[in-house]
Design a protein that fits this description.
mainly beta; 11 strands; 4-stranded antiparallel sheet
Length: 117
Amino acid sequence: QVQLVESGGGLVQPGGSLRLSCAASGSIFSNYDAGWYRQAPGKVRELVATITSGGSTNYKDSVKGRFTISRDNAKNTVYLQMGSLKREDTAVYYCNAVYGSSWIFGWGQGTQVTVSS
């Protein structure tokens, strides 16, 4: 079973940037498409960015042009570079392997991103 560990979250002012990392325990992760999800308080978890095993990317409209997903298959790690952050980006961010919009493995602990002045 693949274990996922997210990191890099924190408190940032509006307009600021953060880089999230997701380390997977097994090399099998590199064979899958991957995605970053987020869950704000009282809201359902939503998929915000995906990257195929070959590196093609897709984004939720609300983060297009501000977020960039990337991966390093040699390190079994997926990244999410977030810029021009807004208060509505505040959430716990999770990564997972994806199939369509569905996740494949168990969830990690997530990493909290708080955008506030």
